[in-house]
């Protein structure tokens, strides 16, 4: 689903990744992290897709809400295991959404 | 491939979409638009993935380079046909990338 987000400005974290062939635990972790993100203060929504590249964009009210989520204990563990096992490479870009518009049939 | 982008700040356009079942011409258009984007002044890179949701993130030097690309004639035609045939819905978010970091094995 396309995330329903408020009128800008708000913030986006673009997480682009390439996975390893190691799958054990990956899907459970990914599901759990999305569940946890939904409970975080300032969380606005998330969008995700994967072909070869995976792209997950999460939306947040403020840079502070992004920082708190980044440092959350269970998320830190997921990040560490991610670097050890699940990801060959990734890039995280923290952005301020300045304007948005859309289209619906 | 994860896009190689310069030190922030730079700009990102997050294009999130849901497709219709109508495929005629879609793949050619998508390929052509990526080729054209690469030739635009200020274009830095692009990342794309699709599961149910499609996410394409293009990176740009400035808001002005994004505006010029948006108004380019062949791109305007693609946008119009997109709304008429290929997309059920989409959302475009124009962002300033404030910081980034990454990981590589």
UniProtKB/TrEMBL annotation, chains A, B:
Keywords: Monooxygenase, Oxidoreductase
Protein name: Antibiotic biosynthesis monooxygenase
Lineage, highest ranks first: Bacteria, Pseudomonadati, Bacteroidota, Cytophagia, Cytophagales
Taxonomic source organism: Spirosoma pollinicola
One Gene Ontology molecular-function label: monooxygenase activity
């Amino acid at each position: 689903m396309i995330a329903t987000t408020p009128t800008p400005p708000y913030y986006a974290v673009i997480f682009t990744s390439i996975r390893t062939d190691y799958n054990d635990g990956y899907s459970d972790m990914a599901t759990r992290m999305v569940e946890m993100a939904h409970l975080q203060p300032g969380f606005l929504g998330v969008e995700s897709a994967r072909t070869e590249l995976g792209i997950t964009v999460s939306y947040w009210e403020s840079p502070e809400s992004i920082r708190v989520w980044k440092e959350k204990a269970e998320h830190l563990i997921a990040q560490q295991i991610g670097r050890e096992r699940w990801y060959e490479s990734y890039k995280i870009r923290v952005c301020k959404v300045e304007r948005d518009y859309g289209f619906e049939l």
